[in-house]
Amino acid sequence: MSQHEDQHRPDEPAVEPPTGQDEGSAATPTVEELDDRWRRAMAELDNQRKRHIRELDQVREAERGRLAAAWLPVVDNLELALSHAEADPSSVVQGVRAVRDLAVQILRDLGYPRHDETDVPFDPARHEVVTVVDEPGTAPGTVVRVLRPGYGDPDRQQLRPAAVAVSRKQE
Amino acid sequence: MSQHEDQHRPDEPAVEPPTGQDEGSAATPTVEELDDRWRRAMAELDNQRKRHIRELDQVREAERGRLAAAWLPVVDNLELALSHAEADPSSVVQGVRAVRDLAVQILRDLGYPRHDETDVPFDPARHEVVTVVDEPGTAPGTVVRVLRPGYGDPDRQQLRPAAVAVSRKQE
Fold first, then answer.
1. Does A132 touch chain B (CB under 8 A)?
2. pLDDT digits (tens, 9 = 90+) for A103-116
3. Is pLDDT at B14 greater than 60 in this prediction?
4. CATH code, A1-6+13-110
5. I want to staple A38 with a disulfide (CB 3.0 to 4.6 A). Which of B8, B38, B83, B139 is the partner?
């Protein structure tokens, strides 16, 4: 809150680090000096904690703004596709496809790549089984259809697994 | 890093707060005790700083995931609109309109309401003038058309001002 507090960089403690013990008796601190040092360290702990709380809020807000701004082109392009549709209804499909590709790219740039691979073995970390189907000629437990793509990777950050149809065990 | 460190809640300092001075001579700490107290306070300052750096990363990552997940329905609905378009091309316009409304609602829920008001006085904090037009019968400096909506409020959080056409000063 004080000017003093705000001038400190978070990585610079307000109090000096412990000095060596080999400075001779002239440098030996008195009880009063040591008590004062300790009280200042305690005050700095409190200041640091308050700064941290403010910083957490700022970081959260900045991240929210950054991400919301990243999605504005999606909204703009949707409106563009709609306004073109009035003149040429067939153009809207092309426009929507471009918007979909843009949205998928934004998710990839944020660290959530799209996953809609088929013909891969079922993996409980990546796939959510929606239905089991008979698929002759396919190894059992193979992803044969993706009903809803997944985004992100389970070992890093995953928004959701892919919803898939898996081939049945052959009896 | 140590077990000791991780057991502390951030709002609980590892060292005791200063005690009163009126505890009698039996409680007067020695130089060694005071030096030890101070060193523990310094160590806690360092631990607190390290915890905070980790927390900042966690908060940023959690906020990113929360916002990306909020947009997934937009991507899903775009794909739904596209798949319906194959059967009935005219249905896509209706689908896209619903997706646009959903995107605008997500932005509002994130704290960025849409602004596309016309017939309001030009406000440099809310509007970016793209063109000035002759509009007889309109007070000069009035927003007569919104070319691109704005999102958010200037006194809180603004993603961008609205791009507008403003009526010219009458000579």
1. no
2. 999 999 989 999 99
3. no
4. 3.90.20.20
5. B38
Q: Do B89 and A85 touch (CB under 8 A)?
A: no
A contacts of B156 (beta carbons < 8 Å): none
Contact, A89 vs B90, CB < 8 A? Answer: yes
Q: Do A93 and B74 touch (CB under 8 A)?
A: no
First to last CA, chain A: 73
Residue A110 and residue A152 in contact, taking contact as beta carbons nearer than 8 Å: no
| CATH architecture of the region A113-171 | Roll (2.30)
How distant is the alpha carbon of residue A61 from its chain centre? 13
ipTM of the complex: 0.72
Residue B40 one-letter amino acid: R
What 3-state class would DSSP assign to B85? helix
Smallest CA–CA separation between B151 and chain A, in Å?
9
C-beta of residue A77 within 8 angstroms of C-beta of residue A102 = yes
Binary contact (A34, B35; C-beta < 8 A): yes
Q: Residue ranges of the alpha helices (H) in chain B?
A: 3-7, 31-87, 91-109
**Tell me: the pLDDT tens digits for B97-150?**
899 999 999 999 989 999 999 999 999 999 999 999 998 888 999 999 999 999
Q: pLDDT by residue (tens digit) across A3-33?
A: 444 444 444 445 555 554 444 445 677 888 8
pLDDT tens digits along A72-102 = 999 999 988 888 877 777 788 888 889 999 9
Question: For B25, which DSSP code?
Answer: G
**B35 in contact with chain A, both atoms CB, cutoff 8 A:** yes
Q: What value, to the nearest 5°, has the Cα angle with vertex B132 and ends B129 and B136?
A: 135
Compute the distance between CA of residue B92 and CA of residue B84 in angstroms, rounded to an integer. 7
* pLDDT for B59 beyond 50: yes
> What are the residue ranges spanned by the domains of chain B?
112-171
- B103 lies within 8 A of chain A by CB: yes
Report domain B112-171's class.
mainly beta
Instruction: Give CA–CA dist B122/B132, Å, rounded.
Output: 11
